[in-house]
Amino acid sequence: MTALLQVETLAKSYAGVHAVKNVSFALSAGEILALIGPNGAGKSTCFNMLNGQIRPDAGSIRIAGENIVGLPPRAVWRRGVGRTFQITATFSSMTVRENVQMALLSYHRRLWAVLGYAGASHRDEADRLLDLVGMLQQAGRPCGELAYGDLKRLELAVALANQPRLLLMDEPTAGMAPKERVELMRLTTDIARRKKIAVLFTEHDMDVVFEHADEVMVLNRGELVTRGTPQQVRADPHVQAIYLGEGLLYDAKHRAEATP
Amino acid sequence: MKLEVAELNSFYGPAHILFDVGFAVGDGEVVAMLGRNGAGKSTTFRTIMGLVSRRAGLVKFEGDEITRLPSYEIVRRGLGYVPEDRRIFSELTVEENFEVGRQKPRPGAAAWTPDRIYKLFPNLGEMRRRLGGDMSGGEQQMLSIGRTLMGNPSLVLLDEPSEGLAPKIVEQMAGAILAMKREGLSIVISEQNLHFAKLICDRAYIIEKGRIRFSGTIDELEAHPEIRDAYLAV
Amino acid sequence: MELLFVQALSGLASAASLFLVASGLSIIFGVTRIVNFAHGAFYMLGAYVAYTLTSRFAGPLGFWGGLLVASLIVAALGALMEMVLLRRIYQAPELFQLLATFGVTLMVQDLVVVIWGADDLLGPRAPGFTGAFSLFGRNIPTYDLLLIALGPAVLGLLWLLFHRTRWGVLVRAATQDRDMVACLGVNQKWLFTSVFALGVFLAALGGALQIPRTTVTHYMDLSIIVEVFVVVVIGGLGSVTGAFVAAVLVSELNALGILALPKISLVAVFLVMAVVLVVRPFGLFGKAERAPRSSAGTSFRPWKPMTSIERIGVALIVALAALLPLFAGNYALSVGSEILVFVLFAASLHFMMTVGGLASFGHAAYFGLGAYGAAFAIKFLGAPMGVALLIGPLFGLAGAVISGWFCVRLSGVYFAMLTLAFAQIIWSVAFQWVEVTGGDNGILGIWPSRWASSPEGFFWLTLAIVAVSVALLRVLVFSPFGFGLRATRDNTLRADAIGIDRKSVQWAAFIVSGTFAGLAGALFAFLKGSVFPETLGIPISVDGLVMVLLGGIETVSGAVVGAIFYKALAIWLMSQTDLSKLVLGAIIVLLVVASPKGIVGFIEQIRHRRPPSPNGAGSSAARADASDALGIAKMKVAE
């Protein structure tokens, strides 16, 4: 079986400095992959290339066999790539439900309709998505009123509106309390496994990474250093030296597992 | 007491955000303000700094009331503030960033100079002429702290210094904060990462829904997991 | 060849004043984020005060002392304006600040006439620089040489000031993040005031230096402000070097353009500006703008369609308006028709600004195109009014198709300034292409068909067209297209990530808006019976902005109320006082200070005022986060 996402020798440089070089990896449906690395290692550049915001200098990105390099973000989205942002990006003048309806209107190609009340369209479908992420109770609230964790869940619902095959999540739990982190990631992995969605996420909270990722990829100075299971990556002395440090900042149980 | 806060209330528009928040920081102490996102940690700092216009209560710094002073005056009295998101001046060099933060030295204490800050954060010393915008997240956080130190504060409010940084950088940051403590600085850190707080703090407060729910040493907090679970939801 | 060289020298001399004024505007914008429309007024005041000091009180100060003291006096006036007016509105949306400074401009225009009279004034020559020297058989004033040397000298001084002094470093820091500077112990208020005073000083000096070269007039403010906008946009807002290069470029284009293409010399400058902005959207030396605190029109209370009761209410109001001819005289009816025309004009601009977040400074272009389109249909085709009322909007549509394609590549202040540039291009064409447009003399004799020629008939026709058009625009707001447009306004990143093609959606909105403005313009042509280049002018564009902002930018249909209020007030003032601009300006300033949400926004605010409750906490916290002093990007919400 070919992988859902196949990245080959991806490269990007700014003013002669390599931000990302020679990055290749594959991701199959239903798999949860974490991308970690020091600040400035090229994680964001990688993400922005995957969803079409930045055009790579070289390499290919294939979604189910189709090369998407050179397509704008909206065309990448049409091919089934959903995205959540590190700082939540929602439409602040709309209600929670309207945010999802907006994504659905786009998905059903009704953006150019000039008649009819948009607030009445795709309502049931929007409510189903909101129910999926546990936000149905708050559907009528202005999204500017939401608590931060709820905004993150709304983003997830919006990202699911186009029936994605691949979900890109940039630091999905940044700024959340530990319990909210666990809940959001459980919800995400649960949905991903059920709907066979591949998930690629970046994260600095190692508790989240080691708990929820099937595999972990480490990026340093624009290059892939290693890829493996959480246990393997945790125990890798090179990864400890460049990124994990002495391991004072994640749960003892992960440290205990790491020392054989 | 270095800093005493009593019955602090603040409002955003019609919304009541902080409810009678009170805490105190002693000379040379490192205190953690723990709480979930939106619990009121940042708002507490911003209210102390005079950045929230509707506020009530009492803030005493080194014995003087500063509740009603404008932000710049509070800073000049020696209360430094490092906001979340670093907010460095991206088009100014490292040295120019320091210049913006520079204030008169405090009597009886050695003035912070760029050279002293480079000793604290050796990375920065290698990039004095680099623009703030060309630095990595970790370096920007160091620059942001250094810039505040240039104001020669005797107490620093650090808002989520570990947020979004690699574990290894956070460990370095912990080392630097302990070094600042050795210099005699009092420090208040707002934090979600309990692991990080344990490394550096003497005491902790837990804030939840705008109210202080716990006050005690880190050891006491460790000894009462039920408190931790109730308010921090680890 | 010699002629070219001499013209080029003269262009360089003109560049000096332009650079002074533009650098002042740029510096002020950099720190305060205010596009100071009153900058032209300060330039003019600089010239007037310098005239008085050098011609009447020349004794103690001398000529040069007079120029310097004049500039300092005007700088003090600028500082005063910053302290009593702008300090109150720094937290308001950028457009309101523009509106307030525009109000000041209006007031100064009348005040200048009151103090110095309406006649042009001729100042003294500069002592020591009265002569000329001969080059290639042509005379070049020595004063020009002084000005040519002055530009680079001021540029150098400003560079030293910003890079070698603590004040300069603080100003550059504040340019990026003014609130952070306050958190580092800097008294932001005085930093802002000093920057404002410096900027105004430069503008006033630019004006004062003009008195040996040209006469001092009471309309020199508007002509310089447009040129200065062009300069700072080409150079890049906030860049002093950019202002210098662009001032030279624009002055040379003007000086040499007259030789090469006398007919379209005005157009050349604006074309260069359009090209620069499309190639480098932030100007030659500009840097990408940080995301604005909140774009125009962003509201935090979701919009809802009208309830049936509200619909009946609106229908009743329209019906009442239709009864007006039964008891009003001809004059009142023509005033009523004019107000209605501007209701449609404002509503069309409102659609772009509020729903699309696209603030146009040049909306008069499409209004005027509609008027000229209708006039051409009558004059060249002999078409009946019905056809002309179709051709007018088509002109507006065509203009919007072309300029919109360029404009939607930009955003924020740059978008606004490019729309202004396009409006000025179209205005210059109308002004200079005398064979077709009649130039300054306009096109006369555009009267309605007989069935609509009575004041009552025309009023009813206008009311019907305007009511239907405004209703159509409202339907559009709530349609999927309107939702998509709001999505691009609320969050470009997210809109792009859910498959919305921002540029196409905004371009379409631009075209819709231009078409309805064209329709309003066509009606206006028939109302007045004539068309002049003024229908394309800046004052009409600004009228539109004022109406929208007065009505309330966060509302669905506030522009209707704003238009009625503003137009009625303007017409009434015009009939009551000679100082209508002074009064109007003062009213605008007062309204901005009293209610930055506009009339309808103010009413809604009262309607929706809720008692403080824990449930309400989230909403207002988020709002405060977006707009309060620190403006932290992350919306962290107290729950």
What does this structure look like?
The complex is a heterotrimer of chains A (260), B (234) and C (639). With 260 residues, chain A is an alpha/beta fold. Chain A has helices at residues 43-50, 73-78, 96-107, 123-132, 148-159, 178-195, 206-212, 230-235, 237-244, 252-258; strands spanning 5-14, 17-27, 32-36, 58-63, 66-67, 81-84, 166-170, 198-202, 215-220, 223-228. Chain B has a single domain, classed as Rossmann fold (3-Layer(aba) Sandwich), CATH 3.40.50.300. In chain B, the strands form two sheets. Chain B has a six-stranded mixed beta sheet, sandwiched between helices. In chain B, strands 2-1-4-5 form a four-stranded antiparallel beta sheet, covered by helices on one side. Chain B is globular and about 45 Å long. The two termini of chain B are 31 Å apart. Chain C has 639 residues and is an all-alpha fold. In chain C, the strands form two sheets. Chain C has a two-stranded antiparallel sheet with strand order 1-2. A two-stranded antiparallel ribbon of chain C has the order 3-4. In chain C, helix 2 packs parallel to helix 4 (94-116), helix 8 (220-235) packs parallel to helix 10 (265-279) and helix 15 (385-407) packs across helix 16 (412-432). The longest helix of chain C has 31 residues, at 2-32. Mean pLDDT of chain C is 86; it is low at 291-299 and 610-639. At the B-C interface, strand 2, helix 1, helix 2 and helix 3 of B face helix 6 and helix 26 of C.
Average pLDDT number of chain C:
86
Helix share, percent of chain C:
over 70%
Envelope shape of chain A? globular
Average pLDDT of chain A, to the nearest integer? Answer: 88
Largest two-chain interface: A-C, 47 and 44 residues
Could you tell me the radius of gyration of chain C in angstroms?
Answer: 25 Å
Secondary-structure map:
The complex is a heterotrimer of chains A (260), B (234) and C (639).
Chain A: E1 5-14, E2 17-27, E3 32-36, H1 43-50, E4 58-63, E5 66-67, H2 73-78, E6 81-84, H3 96-107, H4 123-132, H5 148-159, E7 166-170, H6 178-195, E8 198-202, H7 206-212, E9 215-220, E10 223-228, H8 230-235, H9 237-244, H10 252-258
Parallel strand pairs in A: 3-8, 3-9, 6-7, 7-8
Antiparallel strand pairs in A: 1-2, 1-4, 4-5, 9-10
Helix pairs in contact in A: 3-4, 3-5
Chain B: E1 3-12, E2 15-25, E3 30-34, H1 41-48, E4 54-61, E5 64-65, H2 71-76, E6 79-82, H3 94-101, H4 114-120, H5 122-125, H6 137-149, E7 155-159, H7 167-182, E8 186-191, H8 194-200, E9 203-208, E10 211-217, H9 218-223, H10 225-231
Parallel strand pairs in B: 3-8, 3-9, 6-7, 7-8
Antiparallel strand pairs in B: 1-2, 1-4, 4-5, 9-10
Helix pairs in contact in B: 3-6
Chain C: H1 2-32, H2 39-55, H3 58-84, H4 94-116, E1 132-135, E2 138-141, H5 142-164, H6 166-182, H7 188-208, H8 220-235, H9 240-260, H10 265-279, H11 308-322, H12 324-327, H13 330-355, H14 364-381, H15 385-407, H16 412-432, H17 434-437, E3 443-444, H18 455-478, H19 480-490, H20 492-497, H21 502-528, E4 530-531, H22 538-551, H23 558-576, H24 580-594, H25 598-607, H26 614-627
Antiparallel strand pairs in C: 1-2, 3-4
Helix pairs in contact in C: 1-5, 1-6, 1-7, 1-8, 1-9, 2-3, 2-4, 2-7, 2-8, 3-7, 4-22, 4-24, 5-6, 8-9, 8-10, 8-16, 9-10, 10-16, 13-18, 13-21, 13-22, 13-23, 14-15, 14-16, 14-21, 15-16, 15-21, 18-19, 18-21, 19-21, 22-23, 22-25
